[in-house]
User: What shape does this take?
Amino acid sequence: MNFYAWMFFVPMWLTCCYTIGAFSIWGGGFLDKPDGISIIDYAGGFVIHLSSGVAGFTAAFWVGPRHSRDRQHSPPNNIIHMLGGAGFLWLGWTGFNGGSPFAVGRTASLGILNTHICTASSLLVWLCLDMIFYQKSSVIGAVQGMITGLVCITPGAGLVESWAAALMGVLSGSVPWYTMMVLHRRYAFFQKVDDTLAVFHTHAVAGLLGGLLSGVFAKPSLLEMMYGRNKYNPGLLYSILDHRPGDGLRQLGYQLIGALFITAWNVVFTSLICILISRIVNLRMAEDDLEIGDDAAHGEEAYAVWGDGERMPTTSPWRLQATPRIPFLCRRII
Assistant: This one.
């Protein structure tokens, strides 16, 4: 996406998509009614991850793909940096899910514990599937499995038991793996959209999976501890054990309604935002700029060690031509 288009896109999407989804599910909107539809979303599986995954995939559709050779050979920029970022992400997610109750207590503690259980399980399952089908594991695969686990547990971190979190981790390490490694390569539509970081699979699929599983495994006592009495129906599993399967099926239906609303809203309004921006500036970088890369967009190379690989411009940037001036107060009087 063009840099200037990105500057337009971010505030417009936050205003028209994220804010509407958050209000609808969390802020008393039509999907947050104690006497009507109430969506279980502990920390943003639908509001944040499903919406961002769908919006990112939709925006990639409108922007268009990279050059074919870049798509065929796209190694990571720096695996060490990626590992560092993944560590910070996992660490931050501890506060993300642990801080959602806004108080220290059993719900916050359970949210943190379940976050680690689900994420570790998901990472392990992803690596096992890589070993089974590709005879080798990878750091990139481990990070993908980590992210899908974090996303999947988010809507139910403090609302499910730890055994359920482990089961959610197994599913979040296998279902998104299948959609990314099998379905993505099998269907032409997925090939047409250049989803560079696979956000559709790691966020949209994992967020949808976590939201639906929260409707299955949400424990009544934990729901009451977090939200008070009678706001949500119990998870389907507990309603069956209580011989009231209709309550659990109703809540699972509400979860489906929430997922459909978030998905449809983001597809429609992300498309409208991209169309509107395209009438103001180009969504896509010029083809010549795509050939050059960072230097065309920012006037500098991301990695140029002692000039190695740096493209020298025909005219030096103004900051290299200008003579540096020492401020008067910093001058040394001799």
